[in-house]
Structures are given as C-alpha cells and as structure tokens.
Amino acid sequence: MTLAVARAAGCAGFFLLGAVVDSRAHAESPALSSEPARLASRALLIALASAGERLVAVGDRGHILLSDDKGRTWVQSESVPTQVLLTGVCFADARRGIAVGHDEVILITEDAGLTWKQTHYSPEAQQPLLDVWCGQGGRAVAVGAYSAYFSSEDGGATWKERKFAAPPVRTQPVQAGSADSIGGGFHLNRIVASSPSRLYIAAEAGHLYRSDDGGVDWVELPSPYEGSFFGVLPLAGDALLAYGLRGNLLRSEDAGLTWQRIRSGTVAMLDGGVTFGNGGAPTAVAVVGLSGVVLVSYDGGKSFALLQQDDRKGLSGVLAVGAGTLLTVGEGGAKLIILRADSVARGVRPAVVASGVASAAIGVGDSR
Q1: Residue 355, number of CB atoms within 10 A of its CB
Q2: Model pLDDT for residues 332-342, shown as the tens digit of each residue
Q3: Distance CA 122, CA 101 (A)
Q4: Which tops the pLDDT comparison, 344 or 357?
Q5: What is the pLDDT of residues 190-234, one digit of tens each?
Q6: CA 329, CA 229: separation in Å to the nearest integer?
C-alpha cells in the first residue's frame, strides 16, 4: 500500500450519528494481532511520537516499532491486538500512549509501547480515525473521517463520541439577524497542540479549527484555501503553519485569524512538519510530503528551500532527533535525514541514513 493509497483509504466511511456513546461495548471485539515482520521498518509507516527518549512509529498491518537509539535501529512491539493500518500515535509521558487507525481502532500502552491493549474498535462504523492528541491529566482526543471525534478523560481507557461542531471565530461584532454556520462532516486529518489548552485541527476542504480550552469547544478559522489541509505546525508565540494538497503552505502570525501564502516550490501533498534546532539558528522548520519532498526553513517558516529526496518515496511524518537531524516515516519506512544549514542554502541534498530492524529485543523494564 502506498502513502497516497493509505490517505485515500482513510477517507472512506459514513457520517457520525452525532450521539454521545460509551465505547466500552466495542472494546472487547475480537481482532487479529499484528505479526512479526523482519522488514517492518522499511514498510509503510504513517506517524511518529516520542515516549521520553524512546521513539514510536506506527503504520501498515498494525505494525508498531520502537527505537531507543534515535531511529538508527528498530524493534517491533511485543503485543499489538490489531492488523489494521495505524494512522496516529501520541504519548502523555514516557510510558503512557495511544495509537489510532482504521476500523475506529484505539490502542493504549502503559509500558512505553512494548505492549498494547485495545479500548475501542468499531469496524461497522466504516470510518477510520486519522490522528490522536494526548494531553495532561489523562485527557485525549481522537479525530477522523467525516468529523469523527472521540474524547477520553482517563488516558484512553474509555471514550465518548460526540458531534463535532465549530462555529466561525468571531473577528467582528455579530449583526442582528445573522446566523453562524457550524458545517460538519469534513475529514479531520490532524490534531496538534501549541499549549496544554490550545489545539488546532487541519481538515479537508480548506477547513482549519482552533480550541482554546483543551478541545471542549472549537471555532472554525478563516482560510484562504479550499483544498484539504493535512497538518498544522505551531511555531513561536501565536505563529503557525498550515499545509496540505498541491504544495499549499500558509503562515499565520495571529493564531490562525489571518494567513499569508508561502512559496513551497512543489505541487506535492505536504503531510508532516516539525521545528528543530540547528547551530543556534532561529526557529528551524521542516515540512515533508509526497514524492520525497523535504522543505527546510531557517527563518521561522517565512521561506523554505526544497530538498527533493532521490527515491521520491512519500513522507508522512517527521521528528527532530538531534541538531539538524530529522527522522521521517512514509512509504519507505523509517529514514534519518541529516541537514546542514549551509548545504540547504546552496540546495545540496542532505545525507540520508536508512533505518533497520534490530535483532535484539528491548527489555520489558527499559522505558527509555
């Protein structure tokens, strides 16, 4: 399965019924377990997260991979009770995490990703979950196709489904007789946080949303683009980037109230982003996407250089694992990319280090 096919598959489903339901009725549904795969770190991986010093990647066939050496080598989790495509993962701390995927599967771990337990599973809904956010105090939010929206207050042990509603943000006084349009049914592709209380969602059809109370209430942000967004990346202060189809890249200085288009130099879909440090430079930013696109900025996301990967395999997620070193996941699995600011300025391709699966198992008591 390619990254593009995985994204298309992630949009299949039906509208939410809108009722608030307790997910525990589905938690014990039988499911196959992910199988060991020697080349899992080179197969399709969709998302990345940090569990303390440990890195966790999720992807096709229920594969969950762990690395304790900053992405150089990987091992598979010992127990994962699903074989569906996993699309999102997050950790509240070094041990407690949540992964989500197709068939509305939700998994939790309490041992830094070594073993996982299924707490929600609803294949009959025929809609995938696409991303998940882990907050403080056990709060978590999972989002997906057709505005699927689930929240948890106990670290993912139980979930409540609700209708997602987001009236337009108010930038001017409301006139008499006017009415808000809350819309609905759009695929919610990515959820991220800029602080413990402020969250953003990137969605299809040009929709962007913001919450200032940890996901209790949402507002729809104005957007100059009608195509799908696949990510939002908070920067310093109230600045942020939004990116999506056909290389569209937007920057805001005021928490999404106004936007400026940024030249990306590509028409490839942009799907993941991260900030990183590099030799004392101001906020450095990387955005990755299909066709092996890596966009790098050393001025806080105001301008970008395009670094085209030779293999042109799609990239969907990225983390910073050192000064000028990026760990990416996508069609070719996990890959380390080493950047240098002077090389980026000259348009020199970065060094690439392929990652592999280690033969040794990670100790059960080792939660680094």
Answers
A1: 26
A2: 999 999 986 55
A3: 11
A4: 344
A5: 999 999 999 999 999 999 999 999 999 999 999 999 999 999 999
A6: 19
Q: Residue 247 corresponds to which tokens in the numbers above?
A: 């290389």
CA dist., res. 78 & res. 94, Å (int) = 17
Give the strand order in the sheet containing 73-76.
Answer: 45-51, 54-59, 64-67, 73-76, 356-357
The per-residue DSSP string of 84-108 comes to SPEEEEEESSSS-EEEEEGGG-EEE
The token duo for 90 is: 């997050």
Does 71 have pLDDT greater than 70? yes
* CA gap 87, 101 in Å, rounded: 5
Helical (H) or strand (E) element with 241: strand 240-244
Nearest to 303 by CA among 277, 285, 280: 285
Domain annotation for the chain: domains and CATH numbers: 3-28+40-168+183-268 (2.130.10.10)
Q: For residue 188, what are the contacts with CB-CB under 8 A and spacing of at least 6?
A: 130, 131, 143, 144, 145, 147, 148, 149, 164, 201, 202, 203, 209
Q: Which range (7-11, 153-157, 322-326) has the least confidence?
A: 7-11
Q: What is the pLDDT of residues 76-130, one digit of tens each?
A: 999 999 999 999 999 999 999 999 999 999 999 999 999 999 999 999 999 999 9
Q: What is the mean pLDDT of residues 292-301?
A: 95
Provide the CA 301 distance to its chain's centre, in angstroms.
19
How far apart CA 171 and CA 244 sit, in angstroms, is 25
Please name which of 305, 334, 309, 330 lies closest in space to residue 321, comparing C-alpha atoms.
334
> Under DSSP, is residue 353 helix (H, G, I), strand (E, B) or coil?
strand
How crowded is residue 176: how many other Cβ atoms within 10 Å of its Cβ? 4
Strands 260-261 and 249-252: antiparallel
What is the SS3 assignment for 61? helix
Instruction: Quote the tokens at residue 32.
Output: 């196959």
